[in-house]
Amino acid sequence: MDKFYYITTYGCQMNVHESEKIAGILAGLGYRACEKIEDADIAVFNTCCIRENAENHAYGNIGMLKKLKAKKKDMIIAVGGCLTQQIGKADILHKKFPYVDIIFGTHNLNSLEELILKKQKSKKAVIEIEESEGEICEGDAPLRTSYPNAWINITYGCNNFCSYCIVPYVRGRERSRRSENIIAEAKALIAEGYKEITLLGQNVNSYANNTDDITFPELLQRVADIDGKFRLRFMTSHPKDFSEDLVKVIAANNKICNDVHLPVQSGSNAILKAMNRRYTREDYLKKIELLKKYIPDCAVTTDLIVGFPGETEEDFEDTLSLVREVGFSSAFTFVYSPREGTVAAKMDNQIPEDVSKSRIMRLVELVNSNTREQSSKYVGRTVEVLCEDYDDKKNLYLGRDEYGRMAYFASPSNVIGEFLNIKIQSANGISLVGNIVKD
Ligand code: SAH
Ligand code: SF4
Ligand code: F3S
Q1: Residue 40 to residue 74: CA distance in whole angstroms
Q2: Which of 2, 123, 316, 388 lies deepest, with the highest CB count within 10 Å?
Q3: Phi, psi dihedral angles at 24 (to 5 degrees)
Q4: 165 alpha carbon to ligand 1 midpoint, in Å?
């Protein structure tokens, strides 16, 4: 009889890719993907805890399964990911949702198969949260869902301990995969037909630090040297480790997109210091200058936090002025969310919610107006996009150019995974609309 799985993913690309690995494990056990959670024999929640609302979102969805589980007793519900790895959270989850069958931490992904088999033999919930990160496990075959892009982990964990951030606590210390394994994976994916490779790590620039392996710029170069037409991206870069060597490699290789995600978080030196980011506003602007020196048209995207403890109106204005100065092509904007166990959560100068809310609205308005202005300059231009998907609601295909700009267009045939020239006819806010140009 067919057995089905359904995975709900929260959080970052790291988690998206980990869900592909979970799918690979489930496929190995004979499960197939299904469209609706109601049809699943195993439902997995791959959670995130970067902000409180990410946690609440997961709690809400797990809560909604109570009724289904009461009707469908043999269904296995498994909860994994960053939320479960927080100290004490597995017990809280177990008490709150006693019908959850398996709770596994971020360091337990490699034993998920065992945990499922254990659960199938036992009535009790199986809870496994490994505290230490353990060895990197090679050789698992993810079931990829993001064609034509393929995610490849290069590092796991983080050593930076930005004062607001939970990631180092739930993902452990930074570990790097061996470059030969990364390059072999990229080669195989390109041979299989993937058209975009995205190298993933919390701080890719510190790849293989303190080891005998090659540096991140060398790794990028070697992946770019693989034969075939494809795009190469990476995320995330930490500004403190963003080097001239890296900029030179990006500039020298057409395959590496001229689109860099460089999270700044704040434009105020006092706040950057309190965040433990280990660079100043001036350092950051110098990195942008360096990037523009070698790659004048390089797009830069960023992450910004408002309402960090102690953020004054002047600090916030510094963030606004930095956004104006850099001209980011887009930015992810967040209201600071205290995370238990982090240094910032203990600070006694937390910002009232209404102040943060009004700041985020002003920031979003500025970021969007920058993006709209940049988009409008595209009208009349022809850009090369990689077609990524089909939008059912719009009845249009969509793709991105190397700068990450999204364009919609019509096509009589399926063109997902193809590079196409699109003449941009109009700009609707952030996204562009155009027509395929035959060459
Ligand atoms: N490793 C990456 C980002 C990981 S988390 C980096 O260092 O850039 C993604 C983004 O979430 C961060 O860049 C930050 O802007 C945001 N973030 C992290 N912790 C947060 C918190 N406690 N409250 C609000 N935003 C947060
Ligand atoms: Fe979090 Fe900072 Fe590490 Fe990014 S670099 S994951 S923000 S601690
Ligand atoms: Fe990613 Fe969320 Fe974990 S952002 S690393 S899934 S806490």
Answers
A1: 10
A2: 316
A3: -60, -45
A4: 6
Residue with CA closest to ligand 2 atom 2 = 162
Contact 388, 149 (CB under 8 A): yes
Exposed/middle/buried for 164, CB within 10 Å: 0-12, 13-18, 19+? Answer: buried
Superfamily of domain 3-128, CATH level 4: Methylthiotransferase, N-terminal domain (3.40.50.12160)
Q: pLDDT tens digits, residue range 138-159?
A: 767 899 999 999 999 999 999 9
d(CA 123, CA 109): 21
Ligand 1 centroid – CA 50 distance (Å) = 7
pLDDT tens, residue by residue, 326-364? 999 999 999 999 999 999 999 999 999 999 999 999 999
Q: Which residues have any ligand 1 atom within 6 Å of their CB?
A: 50-51, 164-165, 167, 202-203, 236, 238, 263, 265, 303, 305, 334, 336-337, 339
Strands (E), 157-204: 175-176, 196-200
Fold of the domain spanning 382-436: OB fold (Dihydrolipoamide Acetyltransferase, E2P) (2.40.50)
* CA–CA distance, 260 with 252 (Å, rounded to integer): 15
Length of the chain: 439
Atom of ligand 3 nearest to the CA of 202: 5
Three-state DSSP state, 428: strand
The span from the CA of 407 to the CA of 379, in Å, is: 11
In short, whether 158's Cβ falls inside 6 Å of ligand 2 is yes
| C-alpha span between 331 and 304 (Å, rounded) | 7
Closest CA to 52 of 91, 13, 86: 86
Q: In the CATH scheme, what is the code of domain 146-257?
A: 3.30.750.210
Tell me if the bond preceding 312 is cis, omega within 30° of 0. no
- Dist CA 188 CA 114 (whole Å): 28
DSSP 368-395: HHHHHHHHHTTTT-EEEEEEEEEETTTT
